[in-house]
Write a structure and sequence with these properties.
The structure is a single chain. The protein is an alpha/beta fold and 429 residues long. Helix content is 30%, strand content 23%. The protein is globular.
């Protein structure tokens, strides 16, 4: 398979230029100008970008237990359609992925049906109850790299300290959903002008910031690897920047919807915009954008959270929070950050692919695009414009925060270990 004339953007090698890329079997055979192939397909990728396959640190595939929302099959089809070759699935399934048996079940299901690699995260605490730690030794031996009680914050400082101490022993990552329960009780949206205007219960940004500050202190105490997911507050960005300046082992991600949407967008009470943490004001959004551009925030993660239509069609305060995001993430970043010059294309690929792969310890993902490397690739048209929702989603769910919005950038081909998972814009099955 020869991709001819693509602009190859590869942060892992620093490469950014027009090249041909030759793939044989599962690997990249050659990268260079004017390559030829005696037999096989030649795809004209002139005017298109070719990059390492995207990697998502945070996706809810819902299986087992919530197959009416999403399955591993449909979730990974959506991922491949969005250019992803690897995703980390969250553990808040039923049963909870708090033991090796459930992790093995998720892996087995993924191996049968998925169009991208699935790396299951495991819960920090048993049953996501925030009390007793899971058997991290057994789970790390089973290949789990990231532990999180996502959807719930680990409220106990003692439990969080113990988790971070275990992280130093097993070279694992502790991922926190930073949200103080007492400060966020009954929340419906960000606390500010628009929560007062709309008559909805607000949650202050400080509900996130106080947990971020505590966990950074615990990470400093223990030396454990801490990852802060879906950050939404300006103060959180400032705290992470300070921790990194002190050389601490901390990473953080941000979602496309927090980088682009605002609390004022909720004036229509659209439940698709009810997300957790909530959309915040322009001050916070702009701080997130700056933090991503500067590298304080390491990665863009979708927090893909599918729900059944009847769940999102409830009253605003009754609808579950969450938006799907695997099929729109790349286009949102290109439209909202790259096109206006807030982020370079190379940095965008780094935040969507190379950095999350390194956080998860995936040596076969995120590049480099070089001879002998695995052929995990995405090809996309940066100029193609489309309206979200005009074409059916590949996810089972339709609860996208970007429904009806015009975006720029469309995935044409996704390749996993030399085999197409998406070709000409459509999943291969």
């Amino acid at each position: 398979m020869l991709f001819r004339g693509a602009r190859v953007v590869d942060p892992a090698s620093g490469q950014d230029g027009e090249w041909d890329v030759l793939v044989e079997d599962e690997t990249i055979l050659e990268v260079g100008p004017s390559l030829t192939v005696s037999a096989g397909d030649v795809i004209d990728t002139g005017g298109l970008f070719l990059a390492p396959g995207l990697v998502d640190l945070h996706a809810h595939l819902r299986e087992p237990g919530f197959e009416h929302k999403e399955t591993i099959d449909t979730g990974t089809r959506a991922a491949a359609a969005g250019g992803y070759t690897a995703i980390c699935s969250m553990p808040n399934t039923d049963p909870v992925a708090d033991n090796a048996a459930v992790v093995a079940e998720v892996r087995a299901l993924a191996e049968k049906v998925s169009l991208c690699d699935v790396h299951p995260a495991a819960a920090i605490t048993r049953g996501l109850q925030g009390e007793a730690l899971t058997d991290m030794a057994e789970l790390s031996e089973a290949g789990v790299r990231l532990f999180t009680d996502d959807g719930r914050c680990v409220e106990s400082s003692r439990v969080m300290r113990l988790a971070l101490e275990y992280a130093t022993q097993f070279d694992i990552v502790i991922c926190q959903h930073a949200q103080d329960a007492a400060l966020s009780e009954g929340w419906q949206m960000h606390e500010g002008h628009y929560s007062a205007l709309l008559g909805l219960t607000g949650v202050p940004a400080e509900a996130e910031e106080v947990v971020v500050a505590r966990d950074l202190a615990l990470a400093r105490l223990t030396g454990g690897r801490l990852h802060l997911t879906h950050l939404s507050a300006a103060g959180s960005v400032e705290l992470v920047a300070g921790a990194k300046a002190r050389g601490m082992r901390v990473t953080a991600d941000v979602t496309p919807h927090h980088l682009s949407l605002l609390d004022e967008d909720l004036v229509g009470y659209d439940t698709n915009l009810r997300v957790n943490p909530p959309l915040r004001s322009a001050e916070h959004r702009d701080a997130l954008r700056a933090g991503l551009a500067e590298g304080t925030l390491d990665a863009v993660a979708t927090d893909h959270a599918p729900h059944a239509p009847e769940e999102k069609e409830r009253e605003f305060d009754q609808a579950p929070p969450g938006t799907i995001g695997l099929e729109t993430a790349l286009a949102v970043v290109l439209t909202e950050l790259v096109s206006p010059g807030l982020l370079t294309l190379s940095d965008a690929v780094k935040r969507l692919s190379t950095a999350p792969a390194r956080i998860l310890g995936l040596s076969d993902q995120g590049g480099p695009i070089a001879p002998g490397g695995p052929a995990n690739l995405v090809v996309f048209d940066p100029a193609a414009e489309w309206t979200v929702g005009d074409r059916p989603f590949h996810s089972m769910a339709t609860n996208s925060a970007f429904l009806g919005r015009r975006l720029r950038g469309r995935v044409l081909h996704t390749m996993l270990r030399g085999a197409f998972t998406v070709r000409d814009g459509e999943p291969v099955r």
